[in-house]
Design goal:
CATH superfamily of the largest domain: bacillus anthracis domain
Strand content: 35-45%
Low-confidence stretches: 1-13, 28-77
Number of strands: 18
Number of helices: 6
Largest sheet: 6 strands, mixed
Helix content: 10-25%
CATH topology of the largest domain: Immunoglobulin-like
Length: about 325
């Protein structure tokens, strides 16, 4: 099918957006109650990356998304999963770096690194003898020296063709409460090119200690709680950066019982979806009660006067919502 005909056809499809969102939420809640067999980390990462790439390339987000993706500027393409970086770049707040490492005829240069109150982002260039075609070029990296106390320390990122080379962008929620001043991020690339199962056994070939630009942000203590039976959520603090908003909170629940997730709404009752992340900072169990400290990050500075937080059990049962005055 020709590009023009295909895009025109997709643009004529009406997608029931509210039904799609509700179906996704229901699927997430149902899936979170299942206990699948544990897959090897590398294969799970590869499958997740492939699924994400398929979902984006399909254009099935809103009507006419395929045509939008076809015309998207390069910068937006690079940052398509990190709206914080896109916003910061538009404000010219990201400082250019030139940290380079070479191995096997491939040069990797880290060009940007920022921290916006809760989110870390790193951009990099790749040039040289990269094997594969433009549609299947990945970088496999590790962060924080594979710290066992951090949930995800080895990930795949798909690269974007750029002239004679490629560009990549990494975005993650910082997995600890505070980022030390003048911190350098341990970042090692283990493989670049077409996905190779042997990468999981490799040591770092392109190794960096990346200096992080810490942008100014504001923190407000909250101390607001809601509970239902043995389940409790306490909103600890609100963090507002230049292009992101985050809430640090704790949740407690019986050992082996249901965890909770947060649905977020603006002052008009519209749910905030797209790009949010929810990272675990700490977890402990005492007297058969689990307490998790977490941070949920929204990739935007909210223009509403109120942020409503609705905790939801895995079963779908809701706790009373909490409203934060912004």
């Amino acid at each position: 099918m020709e590009k023009k005909t295909f895009l025109e056809s997709v643009g004529q499809i009406e997608v029931p957006e509210e039904d799609v969102v509700n179906a996704i939420k229901a699927g997430v809640r149902k899936g979170s109650r299942m206990k699948p067999k544990r897959r090897p980390l590398f294969k799970a990462a590869a499958i997740s990356a492939a699924a994400a790439a398929l979902f984006v390339s399909s254009g099935f987000l809103v009507p006419s998304m395929a045509s939008v993706m076809a015309e998207i500027p390069f910068l937006a393409k690079l940052y398509e999963n990190d709206k914080v970086a896109e916003n910061l770049a538009s404000q010219q707040l990201i400082t250019e770096l030139n940290e380079q490492a070479s191995y096997g005829g491939i040069d990797v240069t880290v060009t940007e690194a920022y921290y916006d109150g809760a989110v870390i982002g790193v951009s990099f260039d790749v040039k040289g003898k990269v094997k594969g075609n433009d549609d299947e070029i990945y970088a496999f990296y590790e962060i924080f020296d594979r710290d066992p106390n951090i949930e995800e320390t080895m990930e795949l990122v798909k690269l974007v063709p750029d002239g004679a080379g490629y560009k990549g962008h990494i975005q993650l929620s910082y997995p600890r409460s505070e980022l030390p001043a003048e911190m350098k991020l341990p970042l090692n690339f283990l493989g670049i090119g077409e996905i190779d199962d042997s990468w999981k056994d490799e040591q770092g070939k392109w190794n960096f200690d990346v200096p992080i630009l810490q942008l100014p942000y504001e923190t407000v203590e909250l101390g607001q709680s809601t509970e239902l039976g043995q389940h409790k959520v306490t909103l600890e603090k609100l963090i507002t950066g230049k292009s992101s908003t985050a809430i640090e909170y704790t949740q407690s629940y019986p050992e082996g019982g249901q965890r909770m997730m947060l649905d977020l709404f603006d002052g008009k009752g519209k749910q905030i979806i797209g790009g949010t992340s929810d990272a675990k900072l700490e977890r402990k169990t005492e007297n058969r009660v689990v307490t998790e400290k977490r941070r949920v990050t929204i990739p935007m500075v909210l223009d509403s006067d109120v942020l409503e937080v609705q905790p939801v059990l895995e079963s779908g049962e809701e706790l009373d919502s909490v409203k934060i005055e912004l």
